[in-house]
Design brief:
With about 280 residues, this protein is of the alpha+beta class. The protein contains 8 helices and 15 strands. The chain has helices at about 10-25, 30-40, 85-95, 110-115, 155-160, 170-175, 215-225, 245-250, and strands spanning about 5-10, 45-50, 50-60, 65-75, 100-105, 120-130, 135-140, 140, 145, 180-190, 190-200, 205-210, 235-240, 255-265, 275-280. It is globular and about 65 Å long.
Length: about 280
């Protein structure tokens, strides 16, 4: 391991990591790195061999007791030589004492289990152009779809806490407000009943999060968000723990293209799974 060192990621490194993720076929968001940086500025690590970046990982701290692992990549020419596991240990050490989550690709899930992770559900990526999403007339009371930026941010942050184990206000503010993105909320009688964000990516525009009180509200948000994607082509990572989500996307003509297991080192957080139609990010939770 002579010549190998682990450092924090620079702004240039964050763009490099995005490129690596694109080469892995993960379809990263064009501007995700700006929101990632405010989530935990010290949470992104790069392994360098004689100064050359060869591996990366994110180990992001949320609040006092939760953390999330992502972007675990070793460059193809440097795999199987111990650099990745060194970086993994550094990331896990940074999150020591916390409940840790990750989204593990199929080929790595056995390795994550050896490190104490257990599967909670699978996130299945559905892609395509939604067909026949319909409106949001639910129970005779019209659900209004509004620009999320017009709502008090405190309401959005409180709503997000139903779907994530820890506060992440700075991240959420950036994630919903970065240029080029569209964030829409479903509101009925002053109450938030849904939230969706669409962002430009390497391939299909990705939608995440997608929260909704009912499948009809989710379909209405999806339909409106897809209007901001070239040709209406979108991708959303749906938890199979919410069967109404997977049924909705199949019914709208979207097809599964990718799968990752949400895994935790301890008890599965108590989240509003019946209203979680699309996770925010496979890299940061």
């Amino acid at each position: 391991m002579t010549g190998f060192e682990i450092t924090g990621a620079s702004a240039a490194d964050m763009e490099m990591i995005r490129g690596w993720a694109e080469e892995e076929g993960w379809n990263p968001g064009d501007s995700d790195r700006f929101a990632f940086a405010v989530a935990d500025p010290e949470g992104f690590l790069v392994g360098r061999l004689d100064g050359e970046p060869v591996a990366c990982i994110s180990a992001v701290r949320y609040g006092a007791g939760f953390g999330f692992i992502g972007f675990y990549i070793a460059r193809p020419g440097f795999r199987g030589r111990g650099y990745g596991i060194r970086l993994w240990r550094a990331g896990m050490e940074r999150l020591d004492g916390r409940l840790v989550g990750l989204d593990g690709v199929v080929e790595q899930q056995d390795n994550y289990r050896k490190s104490g992770f257990r599967s909670a559900w699978n996130n299945i990526r559905f892609e395509g152009v939604p067909q026949g999403a319909g409106g949001a007339d639910v129970g005779g009371a019209r659900v209004e779809i509004v620009d999320a930026a017009t709502l008090p941010f405190g309401l959005l942050a409180a709503y997000d806490r139903r779907f994530f184990p820890a506060p992440r206000d700075a991240f959420l503010s950036a994630w919903t407000g970065l240029p080029g993105r569209t964030a829409l909320a479903a509101v009925r009688a002053g109450r938030i009943e849904g939230l969706g964000v669409i962002r430009p990516c390497s391939a299909a525009h990705r939608i995440g999060p997608l929260y909704a009180a009912t499948p009809s509200v989710a379909a209405a948000l999806l339909e409106r968000l897809a209007q901001h994607a070239p040709g209406g082509l979108v991708a959303v990572d749906a938890p199979d723990a919410n069967p109404e989500a997977t049924a909705l996307f199949k019914g709208l003509g979207l097809v599964p293209t990718f799968e990752a297991a949400r895994m935790y080192t301890g008890p599965v957080p108590d989240l509003a799974m019946a209203e979680l139609f699309g996770v925010t990010s496979l890299e940061l939770g």
